[in-house]
């Protein structure tokens, strides 16, 4: 029982990180109605900015505290992501208002490749370290309840808590604020939203800024765990099954989808992997997404679209 709970907790913590990355997809889709293939590049670009400024600032300013350097680097990287969001809206999106979804999709692909190339030009292409002070030593918990206790990775626990707080804040933002409701209106119909006075350009800037902050936090956490390298762009691919499972338009769906896939990956790899030679964790999420595409393509919480002719 203790081993099962240990695996379950590990899956929940991994799933919360998947949910965080998936939120970036949901945010952009809710505002523009297009799947943002640039999300992985945004995660990489934000992580590169934070890692490099954390490395440069002590030499520029004389800061001798790692914590202060990381905090300042986080603020600078956040400001950079705000500027990137504004430039994306000003140079690309405002010229594509009311265009077909395929046009917007291709625009996000172009943005993705541009950000990857720009990140490499500005910050280099080596593997960089982000040290935000999260403890990496595991702890034993519930030793009085289970024989041998439950092994919990402190870094995963802290990362899941950070991701959980941000996910909860974004959920409240969408449900309880006028800006959040305006974002939903823009996603439903661009022209109708404009006709009732919702400023489409400002809404798109806001949502890309929020998605940039989400990408920064995701990049910071994954960079702390894995190092900042160009393979971080593939983290977004891990979130694709999450948004398919939860629904492209649902923030709660992104949360639940991430948790289901995180837990499913861990449990299937640990308990079924030995019987099939392992490797289930690699393809489990994509097979589950394929099943949903066949039988419930709108996901668990997505809106079912009915066309009347």
Give a topology summary.
Layout: H1 2-32, H2 39-61, H3 66-91, H4 101-123, E1 138-141, E2 150-153, H5 154-176, H6 178-188, H7 190-195, H8 200-226, H9 235-246, H10 251-271, H11 273-276, H12 280-295
Antiparallel strand pairs: 1-2
Strand order of the largest sheet: 1-2
Average pLDDT confidence is 82
Largest sheet: 2 strands, antiparallel
Percent helix: over 70%
- Alpha-beta content class: mainly alpha
* Amount of beta strand: under 5%
Q: Count up the helices.
A: 12
- Element string (H = helix, E = strand): HHHHEEHHHHHHHH
The residue ranges in which pLDDT falls below 50 over 5 or more consecutive positions are none
* N-end to C-end Cα span: 55 Å
Features of the shown structure:
309 residues; mainly alpha; globular
Notes on the structure:
The chain is globular. Helix 2 packs across helix 8 (200-226). It has helices at 2-32, 39-61, 66-91, 101-123, 154-176, 178-188, 190-195, 200-226, 235-246, 251-271, 273-276, 280-295; strands at 138-141, 150-153. Strand 1 and strand 2 form a beta hairpin. It is built from twelve helices and two strands, in the order H-H-H-H-E-E-H-H-H-H-H-H-H-H. The protein is mostly helical. The protein has one domain (2-295). It has a two-stranded antiparallel ribbon.
Task: Give a short synopsis of this structure.
With 309 residues, this protein is mostly helical. The protein has 12 helices and 2 strands; from the N terminus they run ααααββαααααααα.
